[in-house]
Amino acid sequence: xxxxxxxxxxxxxxxxxxxxxxxxxxxxxxxxxxxxxxxxxxxxxxxxxxxxxxxxxxxxxxxxxxxxxxxxxxxxxxxxxxxxxxxxxxxxxxxxxxxxxxxxxxxxxxxxxxxxxxxxxxxxxxxxxxxxxxxxxxxxxxxxxxxxxxxxxxxxxxxxxxxxxxxxxxxxxxxxxxxxxxxxxxxxxxxxxxxxxxxxxxxxxxxxxxxxxxxxxxxxxxxxxxxxxxxxxxxxxxxxxxxxxxxxxxxxxxxxxxxxxxxxxxxxxxxxxxxxxxxxxxxxxxxxxxxxxxxxxxxxxxxxxxxxxxxxxxxxxxxxxxxxxxxxxxxxxxxxxxxxxxxxxxxxxxxxxxxxxxxxxxxxxxxxxxxxxxxxxxxxxxxxxxxxxxxxxxxxxxxxxxxxxxxxxxxxxxxxxxxxxxxxxxxxxxxxxxxxxxxxxxxxxxxxxxxxxxxxxxxxxxxxxxxxxxxxxxxxxxxxxxxxxxxxxxxxxxxx
Length: 496
Description:
- By secondary structure, the chain is of the alpha+beta class.
- It is built from 13 helices and 19 strands.
- A hairpin with a 2-residue loop joins strand 1 (4-7) and strand 2.
- The longest helix is centred in the N-terminal third of the chain and has 19 residues, at 71-89.
- The model is unreliable at 1-77, 81-92, 305-324 and 473-488 (pLDDT under 50).
């Protein structure tokens, strides 16, 4: 269950990964849509069953919930409000590492700190959001991320984020496709009357990630998905000035490559369709969402005031990340969506998992096993192992977002990244290097040895420090070690 905190005519979904929601009996919010016990015309999770004649009156200003909302909406509100009450009852507070928190004053942009590669390993790991923002509204550093007030809400930062650390208002996670043989995806700038009844409207066509385009293609089935180009993108501020290509093309290219690899014919893959409109009809800025009805607006206003006082609704986060963030397990929602959707499409087509989402890593013989690459990897795709006197580096392709930080920081430049030619076995890390261990010549502790090394990294650093402090002529005597000569490193490359 995902707790939903409703506040001032909008909502922020805080994903509580792995939490168990327990309904507190003392909460007034749980009584708004109190769950009916299983076995009396309700489902086990507390949703009201169809036809169940139950009426619950909101304690907020005497608003009768069933006079305002349909039964299906009441079900959603029931789950959300009970979850919010449970958060309050268990004293749970949103965590920057596991929850999306607002980083814009109006909550338009939300950040999952634990998924941000730049906050985990520095801006050398990723600057995709800043680079893709057409208005230059994102300030990014290793200490935090912020969004200026003039953000247009185009969502291109979220579409470019390889880990899914950003969410932008207006791009629902579970977009429902309209009826019709053709699903036309339209920008909010296009007047709704001109879009037609079978259009899926989003703030900007460039705000959908590759996983989202794959999800639309999967949901559409045999229907065609078209990206309707009204000829306005080149003049739109959301297109930016550096490039005049259609803003949807970067994400569409990835989705198209995956679908093509799975054997989808070109006519079934999402395509841009040119259907121009007069430039004079284009508004300067992206319009706001459709305002809620007066009844719903009143309900949200009352509920927002109560929720803010009861749960201490957080103010927009400045985007700062704790220094321990890198040590927490990474959260990669976009990566997971991309692989999960690709896997379902492959199973439906009777094909193997496509290779497009993956990369291949090779480690050359120059590797000295400094371990720097594994310690800096923001997603944990590179990790260290040690077993039976052998240690080395291994690679989990599922977790790799191809940030390239390992290759950039390798002191020996021994890492090479290339496109994979086939998908690796799922959830099975590939061994890249293997080094035998020998005692250190100074401290005698075992360490992964290479032909050029007789000291463990700690002793080597101490020796270098001594030379730096007392001069290069300083000699540090090494104890002799009667041991077999170090075994050379055995290097593997990820199978192609």
